[in-house]
Amino acid sequence: MSIQIDKNKCIACQKCSNICPGNLIRIDQDQKAFIKCPQDCWGCTACLKECPSGAIKYFLGADIGGRGGSLFTQDHPNHIDWHFITKDSKNHKIQTKKDESNKY
């Protein structure tokens, strides 16, 4: 499991760097985020939930059923859209309400 950050989509807000519990996401000279050692990613998805621009993709390994798929989010005022892109490029969307996301 690992993340990939698209610098073209990164808006330099640094939210991902501030939230990463492993302190793995760094900021370059252009204030854009990058991950120095993707193999060290814990897979917590905190950065996905914080990224307002959808610049971070989380790759799902075959060992957890992903078979090479990826996951990214789109932030909205009251909800988050979770997009699961399968290996054959099919997009499956799950929507979570922000006010209910940390209930459990």
Question: How do the helices and strands line up, and which of them pair or pack?
Answer:
Layout: E1 2-5, H1 15-19, E2 25-27, E3 33-35, H2 46-50, E4 56-59, E5 70-75, E6 79-85, E7 91-97
Antiparallel strand pairs: 1-4, 2-3, 4-5, 5-6, 6-7
Description:
With about 100 residues, this protein is mainly beta. It has helices at about 15-20, 45-50; strands spanning about 1-5, 25, 35, 55-60, 70-75, 80-85, 90-95. Strand 6 (about 80-85) and strand 7 (about 90-95) form a beta hairpin. The longest helix is centred in the first third of the chain and has 5 residues, at about 15-20. It is globular. The two termini are about 25 Å apart.
The biggest beta sheet is recorded as: 5 strands, antiparallel
Order of helices and strands: EHEEHEEEE
What is the name of the CATH topology? Answer: Alpha-Beta Plaits
| Number of helices in the DSSP assignment | 2
Task: Tell me the Rg in angstroms.
Answer: 13 Å
Q: Strand content of the residues, in percent?
A: 25-35%
How many strand elements? 7
By secondary-structure content and strand pairing, the structural class works out as mainly beta
CATH class categorisation: Alpha Beta
Question: Key features?
Answer:
10% helix; 104 residues; 2 helices; mainly beta; 7 strands; 33% strand; five-stranded antiparallel sheet; Alpha-Beta Plaits
In short:
The protein is mainly beta.
